[in-house]
Amino acid sequence: MEIYKGIATFSGIAIGKVLYYSRGEYQIRQCLVSNIKKEISDFQEARLQAVHKLHELYEASQLLDEQEARVFLRQIKLLESESYQNAIESSIAHEKVNAAYAVMINRDELVETFRNLEEPVIRRRINDMQEISNRLIQILGGAAIRINLGDEPVILVAEALSPTEIMEMDKDKLLAVVMHHGSTVSHASIMAKTMEIPTLVDIAADDEWDGMTAIVDGYTGTFYLNPDAEIRREYEIRLEADHREREALLELKAQKDETKDGRKIGLYANIGNMSDLSSVLYYGAKGIGLLRSEFQYLGRENYPRENELFRAYKKVAETMGERLAVIRTADLGADKQAPYLDIPQETNPIMGNRGIRLCLDRRRMFKAQLRAIYRASAYGNLAMMFPMIDSEEEMDEIEKIIGEVKEGLREKDIPFKDIMTGIMIETPAAVMISRELAIRVDFLSIGTNDLTQYTLAMDRQNPLLKDKYNDHHPAVLRMVRMVVEAAHKEGKRVGICGELAADTALTGKFLEMGVDFLSVVPACVLPVRKAIRETDLSGVSVPAVNEDNNE
Predict the structure, then answer these.
(1) Of 73, 227, 364, 372, which is the most buried if we count CB atoms within 10 A?
(2) Residue 541: CB partners within 8 Å, gap ≥ 6?
């Protein structure tokens, strides 16, 4: 028996056979071609097939957030860029080589050129280039990527995986995922979490493990290869207990979200597309605390029309009924865009023209979305909130635009409600003026993903920082407390909608701070509900705002 320690990115226990996943090396022969036109045509056909497949993967994703969505869309953008197409076609025409070889040499030249650069933006571009190149080579007749997991569920072991590769695998055949490279916030880890698959990273994988029996402990980050009989029996018992615990959680679907001492907490769900609506109801969430509206703008060729937006929001309102549904206005930017948006490339898009900044620059787009939201408000219990707010001046502009939208609807006798509005607190600047911002809206929601990386000045997806990135940093938690205290002074409710909202190790601490509501991915609703119901705040002076004030 061999024991390896890694980092758990999603909990759970798995026992089964190892399937070592290898992308393999493509053996591409250089061939001189005489029909240049046909070879270019073959490349273009393969490119369109690849774009179509990436669109399918995008649509199949169950969580289109800042992590997953941008991976597929960045790759589509690369495939559709004139510079990429021209580079391949130029190699075919001038060197008279076959299309697959032209794709390979352009890929290898890029990798070699930027091999020693570690900037996250450059690394992402290289990774995306490698993925689309390998996909094109496969379509053009290269060796097939090993995606078929076989007839029986397996523990997938690999050096590294892309979210694309995980998406193309059969979830029912995946017991667990074990990777050498990756982090808790890497794209692949987040995708595996979305699919509720126990996942370990930082395990030095070996292809000789293929076919061996293994155990994955997604609670301790431990990987057992060829476990002895005693360890196997222990984990068979633990696996059964794990299943029972998950079944027990399902019994909480109809239970109230309140602490032992009777304090009521709002527990909502984050969703990224329309297919997640049923999950909100299935897990018994109080409503939708964050609807990422970007899904309507990404993966398409033009702006969505107002009526298209309206129909989607109307469906949300009608499906949720009396349950609150908070729509976040489009959080688009240079790191998250479709070609038609034509947003200039930025050196550091995370710090760039994104969120409300872009919406205020694209007022026609913004007003169309606001009109759609207000029109849909007549059919249910909608609210909306604005991302990346840093100043009162931005709120001045938003309020002016909202006034214009409402006046336009009144002139046309279109019914709407005066819905609640909220602000996402995502930057230290917003934290410092949170009391002033609270005056302007009905609630605040803390986006801990961005708030953490901006506070620590660390890219949460940079693998070089995985051991240094601490989302439990005292400064982050202190900022949460500051926002709660500031908002409560103005009688406004405060929630958390980032990843930390689902961290049950912090649930009690957040409730002690006075956090009024939490919003998590649907699969995390029940574990968080359990943590809430196990928290006892008696004897603790907990500031809170009456729900009836804001709902």
Answers:
(1) 372
(2) none
Q: How many CB atoms neighbour CB 270 within 10 A?
A: 27
Which of 31, 187, 243, 359 is an active site residue? Answer: 187
Distance of CA 68 to the CA centre of its chain: 5
Write the class of the CATH domain 251-549: alpha beta
**pLDDT values of the chain reduced to their tens digit, one per residue, 551 residues:** 899 998 888 788 999 999 998 765 445 667 788 888 888 988 898 898 888 878 777 666 544 444 555 677 788 888 888 888 888 898 898 888 888 888 888 888 877 776 666 566 666 777 778 778 878 887 887 544 445 677 889 999 988 877 667 766 777 888 999 988 765 555 566 666 667 788 898 898 888 999 999 999 988 889 999 999 999 999 999 898 888 888 888 889 989 999 999 999 999 999 877 877 888 998 999 999 999 898 788 767 789 999 999 999 999 999 999 999 999 999 987 556 667 777 777 777 778 888 899 999 999 999 999 999 999 999 999 999 999 999 999 999 999 999 999 999 999 999 999 999 999 999 999 999 999 999 999 999 999 989 999 999 988 767 678 778 898 999 999 999 999 999 999 999 999 998 899 999 999 999 999 999 999 988 889 999 999 999 999 888 776 665 544 44
Three-state DSSP class for residue 437? helix
Q: Do domains 2-23+146-248 and 36-139 have the same CATH topology?
A: no
Report the predicted TM-score, pTM, of the whole model to 2 decimal places. 0.67
CB 394 within 8 A of CB 421: no
The CATH number, out of the four listed (3.40.50.300, 3.50.30.10, 3.40.50.720, 3.40.640.10), of the domain defined by the range 2-23+146-248? 3.50.30.10
Query: Which one from 359, 488, 497, 524 is the annotated catalytic residue?
Result: 497
497 an active-site residue?
yes
Beta bridge partners of 270: 290
Residue ranges covered by each domain of the chain: 2-23+146-248, 36-139, 251-549
Assign domain 36-139 to a CATH class.
Answer: mainly alpha
Phi, psi for 272 (deg, rounded to 5): -120, -5
